């Protein structure tokens, strides 16, 4: 059964006085136009209410028959007079970057003549995915809907009208001619002082939208067994499932095996109990799978296959409809994830991924909900420490676990802490990875603490041990696969 995918974020921006400070160029062009026409045009007053189409601004100052030719002449003068002096508004570059950071697309909808709008974007290096010119007020609704925009950012009450007509979120900035009171009266959803406030707003907005999508997805599923490792992803999924479905429709399942560090077990149990959810700890037997023990690039496939095949009967036993994993949106694009494929082939669902939640958003949501796992470091299984090509055995895993426990003890004794650490089993030699800032200080070559750390790892059962000068890197053993 295919899973739903989170739609790509599309954010639309008005141009004049939202992204760019058009006034200097507008005044310069209007003054030359007035001289050519031999008329008085109040450039300062007209520039104070930029936004409406030019023919509307000129209608009160020219004969009706003269308006259209004046607009054409203004557009012809504009490239030479108005592009160079117009700067980008504060926060505009960062606002566009914020959309990109969320994997989104940028649409510009403006009443400006399209070729001149393009000149501004190109001159200022503002990269957008689509530009729609000569649209104003409710006329912006059509391109917003056509491009699937979810947000329109503008400075004018007529931008609010366009957003509301399209049924999208209206975000208003106070850099144009409309006041806060006018914008609120027009029905805008959000008012920001300027675009410098936009990235923080967007982060919260996208998180809200994706958490709502997660809630909807969980309601569709009805009941779930959560493959619960105790990490940040599966913890958020478990908490969300309990919130949405109630604990009677949720089971937490932690597979116990030699590859699960014992230090992870009690915290996982305590977390599940704090939610009032049933916790099951079935024994998994991945070590009996030849493909797992062989430890080539597909090891995670056999591990996840064993886990899901163990949890499916457990789900049936408890009358639960689905087995869910904590796969997030970043995992799906990470490139090397055979475990994800194994779970999908066996029908496991991925609510976090379906909602588009990234690792950063998982942590942000966990913090918002007060979950103790919000800043928990990644804790991959012990087998991930064994170099590919070396057989995975209980003895190897126990040795790695002893070495990491000894490493933590030595660091604590020295008053040091490494948020992330790994002891990689390279055979009879161990490669020790710790936070990089320790390597330039307390664990620098020749330091007393360095010698103590390496001695502790050797005493755990390794013939030799070295500190990796590159520091901790999640999945560093995969680098050898990439080179191959």
TrEMBL record:
<dbReference type="InterPro" id="IPR005232">
    <property type="entry name" value="LarE"/>
</dbReference>
<dbReference type="InterPro" id="IPR036412">
    <property type="entry name" value="HAD-like_sf"/>
</dbReference>
<dbReference type="InterPro" id="IPR052188">
    <property type="entry name" value="Ni-pincer_cofactor_biosynth"/>
</dbReference>
<dbReference type="InterPro" id="IPR023214">
    <property type="entry name" value="HAD_sf"/>
</dbReference>
<keyword id="KW-0808">Transferase</keyword>
<dbReference type="Pfam" id="PF12710">
    <property type="entry name" value="HAD"/>
</dbReference>
<dbReference type="GO" id="GO:0016783">
    <property type="term" value="F:sulfurtransferase activity"/>
</dbReference>
<dbReference type="InterPro" id="IPR023198">
    <property type="entry name" value="PGP-like_dom2"/>
</dbReference>
<dbReference type="InterPro" id="IPR014729">
    <property type="entry name" value="Rossmann-like_a/b/a_fold"/>
</dbReference>
<protein>
    <submittedName>
        <fullName>ATP-dependent sacrificial sulfur transferase LarE</fullName>
    </submittedName>
</protein>
